[in-house]
Amino acid sequence: MTAKNSQxxxxxxxxxxxxxxxxxxxxxxVSLEDSIKMYEEGLALSKGxxxxxxxxxxxxxxxxxxxxxxxHFLDEETx
Length: 79
Fold this sequence. Notes:
mainly alpha; Helix Hairpins; 2 strands; 67% helix
């Protein structure tokens, strides 16, 4: 998965690939060049995951519960 693809991947796909990279690097059987490439890919995946989590957190912070128990998102104009 390239850095460009990591932005299009779902959070779960990115996390799964990140776990694969960590596992392969921990085994220590990867060449130095491949380790560097995998490390760089892992950084890009990590950044993508953090960005997606931040976006989700911001969206949830705008979720408001009505008196009747229903939920809605706060409009930008009412903030």
